[in-house]
Design a protein that fits this description.
Residues 79-127 form the Lipopolysaccharide assembly protein A domain. The protein is mainly alpha-helical. It has a domain at 75-132. 50% of the residues lie in helices and 9% in strands. It is built from three helices and two strands. The protein has helices at 15-20, 55-79, 97-131; strands spanning 83-88, 91-96. A two-stranded antiparallel ribbon has the order 1-2. A hairpin with a 2-residue loop joins β1 (83-88) and β2 (91-96). It is flat and about 80 Å long.
Length: 132
């Protein structure tokens, strides 16, 4: 039984060496990227063989992402059903562990949104004042 050798690359290097080697320097000029944009400043048409992004495609990807997060959340809640005792200032009680963690997560998200909104508002006012 004979072992078949893979074809040699154009430079005579094996595949790993060819990938690591710098591209050959020829007399060809570099590609021009200064092509004028279509009227209105729109983006040039997509390359042949590629599909442009659409709002529908973005929504579809978002729905699948949300479905994945929802499934993970359901699994998390079903696996963490044990009760824990919660004490917050004068409030005392028991909750399922998953519910307590989700309430803490939502509280953290809300706090982050409030601080982020305040910072964005601050920056917008600064930009508005500088523009005069």
């Amino acid at each position: 039984m004979s072992v078949r050798q893979p074809p040699a690359t154009p430079t005579g290097l094996d595949t790993a060496e060819a990938a690591a080697a710098p591209p050959p320097q020829g007399d060809a000029p570099p590609p021009q990227h200064d092509a004028p944009l279509p009227q209105g400043g729109a983006q040039p048409p997509a390359k042949a063989g590629t599909v442009p992004r659409t709002r529908t495609g973005t929504v579809w990807a978002g729905i699948w992402t949300a479905a994945g997060v929802f499934v993970a959340l359901m699994v998390f809640m079903l696996q963490n059903t044990g009760d824990v005792e919660i004490s917050f200032f004068a409030l005392h009680g028991t909750l399922p562990l998953a519910m307590a963690l989700l309430i803490a997560m939502v509280g953290g998200i809300l706090l982050t949104l409030v601080v982020g909104t305040a910072r964005i508002t601050q920056l917008r006012r600064l930009v508005h004042r500088r523009r005069g």
